[in-house]
Amino acid sequence: MQSPDPPTPLHVQQIVKTYQQGTAKVFALDGVDQKVEPGEFVAIMGASGSGKSTLLHAMAGLIDVDEGRVKLAGQDLSQLSDAALTRFRRDNLGIVFQAYNLIPSLTAEDNIRLPAPKRMAAKLDSIVEELLDRLDMTARRHHKPGALSGGEQQRIAIARALVCNPTILLADEPTGSLDSISGTQICELLRNLVDQQGHSIVMVTHEPHVAMWADRICVLKDGTNLAELRTDGCRNPQSVAHQYQQALGGEVAV
Ligand SMILES: Nc1ncnc2c1ncn2[C@@H]1O[C@H](COP(=O)(O)OP(=O)(O)OP(=O)(O)O)[C@@H](O)[C@H]1O
């Protein structure tokens, strides 16, 4: 018998999110759709204020939306209680931030272990070993974040995000605090997670040379889907910048 198809990792349907700014109501998201397939790497681009972070936070269930639905691994997040949502997020979602958000007093290895629930105890050692190896961080496992470079800290943050084997990895400007060499290494690492491990990734970035590592680029404008760009695996920042510029109808530096 054939095994059933895996559920769609992430399906965002017509989501609207407003904020009150003084007397004005701001539509941070105004009817956004997005579907991420298994093993797909999607970048979200857009000008400052276009809604990128709000979309990522809505995808992560970190904020409630006013309208529409966020389905993660087939589960409508609005149907879960707060406690159930917290558990569901831990088991199905990995999140990586620009600022790494590691606990300074814990070693690299203990930061990776942090999100794992008790029921994983028996297999946690081997999972952590494998993550340290896969992310080339075994030699640095006993160091605290303050003794690691930015790129190394981000590797540990990615390992921590993967420790529960999530359905999807969300990354908010993961290279934003890194020099270009470390940033490229993190992009290569994310790409390998998709190509070699079959992970699904959504990454917010405003940089064409980072977005080019994705399979597909969703361009937001004023909280709406403006365009979908395909990278076709050619890793060409000029081509991405050109398509992005055309979509926005303005100048974008590479
Ligand atoms: N907590 C909040 N309260 C009020 N307004 C908010 C809040 N968060 C976001 N906004 C507004 O929603 C809109 C979208 O913001 P968002 O941070 O999602 O944009 P962005 O594309 O991520 O921007 P940037 O690239 O500058 O980070 C902006 O107009 C912003 O001012």
Major pleated sheet: 6 strands, mixed
pLDDT < 50 runs, ≥5 residues: none
User: What would the principal axes of the Cα set say about the shape?
Assistant: globular
CATH architecture: 3-Layer(aba) Sandwich
> Compounds present?
adenosine-5'-triphosphate
Tell me the β content. 25-35%
The termini sit apart by: 50 Å
Q: From the alpha-carbon coordinates, what is the Rg to the nearest angstrom?
A: 18 Å
Strand order of the largest sheet: 6-7-8-3-9-10
What order do the helices and strands follow? EEEHEEHEHHHEHEHEEH
**CATH homologous superfamily classification:** P-loop containing nucleotide triphosphate hydrolases
Q: Give the overall pLDDT as a whole number.
A: 94
Helix content: 25-40%
Helical/strand content category: alpha/beta
Tell me how many strands there are.
Answer: 10
Count of discrete domains: 1
Stated plainly, the CATH topology is called: Rossmann fold
CATH class: Alpha Beta
Oligomeric state of the chains in view:
single chain
Number of helices: 8
What would your notes on this structure say?
The chain has 254 residues and is an alpha/beta fold. The chain has one domain: Rossmann fold. It has a 6-stranded mixed beta sheet, with helices on both faces. Helix 5 runs parallel beside helix 6. The mean pLDDT is 94. Bound molecules: adenosine-5'-triphosphate (ATP). One of its GO terms (molecular function) is ATP binding. This is Putative ABC transporter ATP-binding protein. Keywords: ATP-binding, Nucleotide-binding, Transport.
